[in-house]
Design brief:
Layout (H helix, E strand, L loop, with lengths): L7 H12 L6 H69 L1 H9 L7 H7 L1
Length: about 120
């Protein structure tokens, strides 16, 4: 019962064993040391698991922030390229010869998102 119990149960089991005469003197001290070492091992394992969790959380956070930074970099690159394309299209549409060529080819309209961007 002592070996499998925890907290108050351990205290209760040791008290019963002492009162029944099963644990006295040297036996009681051996059991106390055994229980103390088991609790220490258990506490150490919990602390190691907690440290591992902290490390995992830190690693996950770093990975998440790295993904966010990469996403921001890619968004900035797309925005830059879109600005270049918009400027190029505005220049082309300002050229009367290019507009005439588009009309001769039957390309008089453009998608609304592109048209709204050029306005």
């Amino acid at each position: 019962m002592i070996a499998t119990a925890g907290g108050d149960e351990v205290q209760r089991a040791m008290t019963e064993a002492y009162e029944n005469g099963e644990l006295r003197g040297g036996r009681l001290r051996v059991v106390q040391r055994l229980i103390a070492s088991r609790f220490a091992e258990h506490r150490q394992k919990n602390e190691e698991a907690l440290n591992l969790s902290r490390e995992e959380l830190a690693r996950t956070y770093q990975q998440h922030t790295a993904r966010q930074r990469d996403l921001i970099r890619r968004a900035e690159l797309v925005e830059e390229r879109l600005a270049i394309l918009t400027t190029a299209m505005k220049r082309l549409l300002a050229d009367a010869a290019f507009v005439d060529l588009l009309q001769k080819e039957g390309l008089e309209s453009m998608p609304e998102p592109l048209a709204s961007r050029l306005r």
